[in-house]
């Protein structure tokens, strides 16, 4: 194998696996045929290969090439969503830990320190119903009630964390989970699609993320959540990866908030921050739900390149 | 069928496949020839386009060969792709005629 071929293979390794398996050797032949006399890929050819890889990954994320059933994605979200949502209670648990450490838990003002506690308790009930009972309809009703709770907090607690856009990811995931429990093929279908270890792995992940979030800080907990959610959903499955993207919407908001606070707009949050915080998870959700693919199907003879 | 404009790389790739099936490198060379050397597609762009065109059913794999130890896959234009290319040709022809008419009506020496 020549150095040129090795370098092209390294670039082609960045393509989506299915495309690489189908077209990798063929592309390599074309690249080598167009590089006669060269010992390494030219900058234009390299940039073109990289750009192609990025576009094909984007197409797969947006499901523009088909191959992902939204109903299956939602089935996975319906099963694992209630569990992931429990990570949202970390901030409140951190508060409780502080008051316990101060030996003053009885004096803790719940309405200001942990005002959203009832909603997280409701999500815990939904998680138990979804994972360990067949009471899917009851779980769905609970999920809708908890989502309504999110919205009430958003409207009713302006000036606190709620009402600033920081919790948009949790709200979107809550609504998607409720919708998935109501209309998707359900947790049984999700168990067929996921690896056997998915639920136990995600339970361990949520516990670990919660403990780390309380002891160390939220971002460490989120890092664990990302790794655990991707592993639980199955890295090799496109349906799983799409579901993981939806399950991690709260992380999108958190990262956006982190970026805004550190690099763009310092706290306190302004209406501009609020809009900027709400947009990324919404866009990711639309992408993961296959809205671009749906629009493309509506104009099947439109321009394609 | 929509008359939405087709982008140039798509048009040239479909044109390259209109008369006969071709392999990837052949398409690249043919596109350069069709465009009088003005458009030089590269492999990344070509295979991204082929991925989309295949998904839309405009092109399909015709056959595969192994030449000098390397896989060579030939692509062909499907009936659906041919119909889309035909409609694009009609659209471009109509635009060209309109432009030619306007140019003929242009006063000699230009307008003030």
Account of the protein in words:
Chain A folds into 2 domains: 3-61, no CATH class; 70-293, no CATH class. Chain A is 73% helix and 0% strand. Chain A is built from 16 helices and no strands. Chain A has helices at 3-12, 17-33, 43-61, 70-85, 90-101, 110-113, 117-132, 136-156, 168-183, 187-193, 198-215, 218-233, 238-247, 249-264, 271-288, 291-298. In chain B, helix 1 packs across helix 4 (79-104). Helices cover 54% and strands 17% of the residues of chain B. In chain B, strands 1-3-2 form a 3-stranded antiparallel β-sheet. Chain B is of the alpha+beta class and 112 residues long. Chain B is elongated and about 60 Å long.
Task: Describe the secondary-structure layout.
The complex is a heterodimer of chains A (305) and B (112).
Chain A lengths: L2 H10 L4 H17 L9 H19 L8 H16 L4 H12 L8 H4 L3 H16 L3 H21 L11 H16 L3 H7 L4 H18 L2 H16 L4 H10 L1 H16 L6 H18 L2 H8 L7
Helix pairs in contact in A: 1-2, 4-7, 4-9, 4-10, 4-13, 5-11, 7-8, 8-9, 9-14, 11-12, 12-13, 14-15
Chain B lengths: L7 H11 L3 E2 H11 L8 H13 L3 E9 L2 E8 L1 H26 L8
Antiparallel strand pairs in B: 1-3, 2-3
């Amino acid at each position: 194998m020549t150095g040129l071929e090795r370098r092209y293979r390294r670039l082609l390794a960045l393509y989506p696996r299915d495309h690489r398996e189908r077209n990798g050797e063929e592309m390599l032949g074309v690249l080598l045929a167009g590089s006669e006399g060269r010992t390494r890929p030219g900058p234009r050819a390299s940039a073109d290969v990289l750009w192609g890889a990025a576009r094909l990954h984007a197409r797969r994320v947006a499901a523009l090439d088909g191959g992902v059933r939204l109903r299956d994605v939602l089935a996975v979200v319906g099963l694992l969503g209630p569990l992931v949502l429990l990570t949202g209670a970390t901030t409140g648990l951190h508060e409780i830990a502080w008051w316990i450490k101060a030996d003053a838990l009885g004096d803790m003002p719940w309405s200001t320190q942990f005002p959203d506690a009832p909603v997280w308790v409701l999500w815990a009930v939904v998680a138990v119903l979804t994972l360990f009972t067949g009471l899917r309809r009851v779980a769905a009703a609970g999920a809708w009630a908890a989502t309504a709770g999110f919205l009430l907090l958003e409207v009713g607690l302006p000036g606190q964390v709620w009402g600033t856009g920081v919790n948009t990811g949790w709200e979107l995931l809550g609504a998607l989970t409720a919708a998935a429990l109501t209309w998707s093929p359900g947790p049984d279908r999700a168990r067929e699609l996921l690896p056997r270890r998915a639920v136990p792995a995600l339970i361990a992940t949520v516990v670990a993320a919660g403990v780390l979030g309380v002891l160390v800080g939220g971002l460490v907990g989120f890092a664990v959540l990302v790794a655990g959610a991707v592993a639980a959903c199955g890295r090799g499955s496109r349906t799983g990866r799409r579901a993981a993207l939806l399950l991690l919407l709260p992380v999108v908001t958190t990262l956006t908030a982190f970026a805004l606070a550190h690099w763009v707009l310092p706290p306190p949050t302004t209406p501009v921050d609020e809009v900027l915080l709400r947009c990324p998870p919404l866009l990711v959700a639309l992408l993961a739900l296959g809205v671009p693919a749906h629009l493309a199907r509506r104009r099947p003879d439109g321009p394609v390149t | 069928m929509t008359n939405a404009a087709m982008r140039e790389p798509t048009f040239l790739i479909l044109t390259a496949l209109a008369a006969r099936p071709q392999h990837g490198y052949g398409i690249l060379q043919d596109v350069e020839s069709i465009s009088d050397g003005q458009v030089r597609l590269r492999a990344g762009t070509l295979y991204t386009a082929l991925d989309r065109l295949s998904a839309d059913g405009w092109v399909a794999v015709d056959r595969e060969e192994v030449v000098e130890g390397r896989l060579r896959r030939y692509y062909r234009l499907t009936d659906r792709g041919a119909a889309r290319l035909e409609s694009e040709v009609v659209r471009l022809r109509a635009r060209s005629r309109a432009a030619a008419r306007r140019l003929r009506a242009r006063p000699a020496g230009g307008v003030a």
